[in-house]
UniProtKB/TrEMBL annotation:
Gene3D superfamilies: Naphthalene 1,2-dioxygenase Alpha Subunit, Chain A, domain 1 (3.90.380.10), Rieske [2Fe-2S] iron-sulphur domain (2.102.10.10). It comes from Mycobacterium bourgelatii. One of its GO terms (molecular function) is monooxygenase activity. InterPro entries: Rieske_2Fe-2S, Rieske_2Fe-2S_sf, Ring_hydroxy_dOase_asu_C_dom, Rng_hydr_dOase-A. Pfam families: Rieske (PF00355), Ring_hydroxyl_A (PF00848). Residues 53-160 form the Rieske domain. Its cofactor is Fe cation. The keyword Metal-binding applies. This is Rieske domain-containing protein. Keywords: 2Fe-2S, Iron, Iron-sulfur, Metal-binding, Oxidoreductase. It comes from the Bacteria.
Length: 379
């Protein structure tokens, strides 16, 4: 994002903070409680995710030719590799023999040997070795291989399509946001690992917790709210995606500072809601990524939380500090947001009330749900 745009957003955020208000949607909005509880909606949600490009990690997780990483996406184990020419490839991490996972974790390897009976694949997915070859007359080395999924590196992130036959067009998917996302460089920062939350909440309830800061003053009273404004958000939508600016309390200090002296990043957090299940949070030292997936039933979801940093992690104390910040952010989501909405999920499932209300002051929340509705109507 260029400085002019950052200054413009800071100006908007400062005005909202000064006026003690927030960007507002046109009207209140209601959604049906069954959106979070019905099996039918759950299956349609899963189909929506299956048919959408999936951001699965940072480009820096495949730092060079020969590197690989594994991901779990919608319950599926995926192997991503960077081949000799730098191309990113993705495969179902499922052995052709008896479907063992071929590899776990991440690292550097040009060949992968299945831990069960040692069938071996190269990093373009081709089967290159079968011990006891005479047992498998119908298997052809080099032409048989792992099931390849469409994959690419775009805007600094790794993307896949879960349906092997799909055309993966991330540029079309991101539209006007592509250059802006790329410009942060967070996908090229050093990755700090993954933390997984397997939670008794619908995946949309998990996503909802990131779509407004109206709850900061109560839920995060002792944590985020000590540094960030509550119920104060700059909102902009980009097709099915949106961007929120959460101003920090310090922003009011800019009143008496000339604009050319402003350091926008000391005064706000930038949140991207990417359709349909991705949240990215950018600050000066953290590029957090939340990948949220429907679980095996409507009331369960998996959140994979990642973080990246521009800091030099070769210094041990810097690395330890970066991990501590990641742990703090993760604990806040786990122990404050998700803990609270677990009881909310139970209320929804009890059938006590039919509707939920989204306020005019929750435009991100409204936008998320409208984008999902729109996509579901086209499935
Ligand atoms: S399952 Fe992979 S070699 Fe047997
Ligand atoms: Fe929160």
């Amino acid at each position: 994002m260029d400085r002019d745009q950052l200054i413009d957003l800071t100006r908007r955020a400062l005005k909202l903070a000064r006026d003690n208000t927030t960007d507002l949607a046109e009207k209140q909005h209601t959604v049906d409680a069954r959106e979070y509880t019905s099996r039918e909606r759950h299956e349609r949600d899963r189909a929506m995710l299956m048919s959408s490009p999936q951001l699965v990690g940072y480009a820096s997780e495949l730092p060079g030719p020969g590197s690989y990483c594994t991901k779990t996406v919608m319950g599926r184990s995926i192997l991503l590799t960077r081949t000799t020419d730098g191309t990113v490839k993705a495969f179902d991490n499922v052995c052709l023999h008896r479907q063992s996972q071929v590899v776990t974790g991440c690292g550097t390897a040009k060949r992968f040997t299945c831990p069960y009976h040692s069938w071996t694949y190269d990093n373009t997915g081709r089967l290159v070795g079968v011990p006891g070859r005479e047992g498998f007359p119908d298997v052809t080395l080099k032409s048989d291989g792992l099931t390849e999924l469409p994959a690419t590196e775009f805007a600094g992130f790794l993307w896949i399509a879960l349906n092997p036959g799909t055309h993966l067009d991330v540029a079309a998917h991101l539209g006007d946001l592509a250059d802006e996302l790329d410009s942060w460089g967070i996908g090229r920062w050093s990755p700090l690992g993954e933390k997984v939350l397997d939670s008794p909440i619908n995946w949309k309830l998990a996503v909802d917790t990131f779509a407004e800061n109206y709850h900061f003053a109560t839920v995060h009273r002792q944590t985020f709210a000590t540094i960030a404004r509550s119920n104060c958000t700059v909102f902009d939508s980009y097709g099915p995606h949106h961007r929120l600016i959460f101003p920090l309390n310090a922003i009011l200090g800019l009143e008496d500072v000339p604009e050319d002296k402003w350091d926008p990043f000391q005064n706000m957090v930038v949140i991207y809601a990417l359709f349909p299940n991705i949240v990215i949070s950018v600050t000066i030292a953290n590029g957090e990524l939340f990948r949220v997936y429907p679980g095996t039933e409507p009331g369960r979801s998996i959140t994979v939380h990642q973080n990246s940093t521009p800091l030099d992690l070769s210094d041990e104390s810097v690395a330890a500090g970066a991990q501590a910040v990641f742990e703090y952010a993760h604990a806040t989501v786990r122990d404050e947001d998700y803990r609270l909405v677990e009881a909310l999920q139970a209320n929804l499932e009890s059938g006590a009330r039919e509707k939920l209300v989204f306020g005019r002051n929750e435009p991100g929340l409204q936008h998320r749900h409208m984008a999902w509705e729109e996509a579901l109507s086209r499935l």
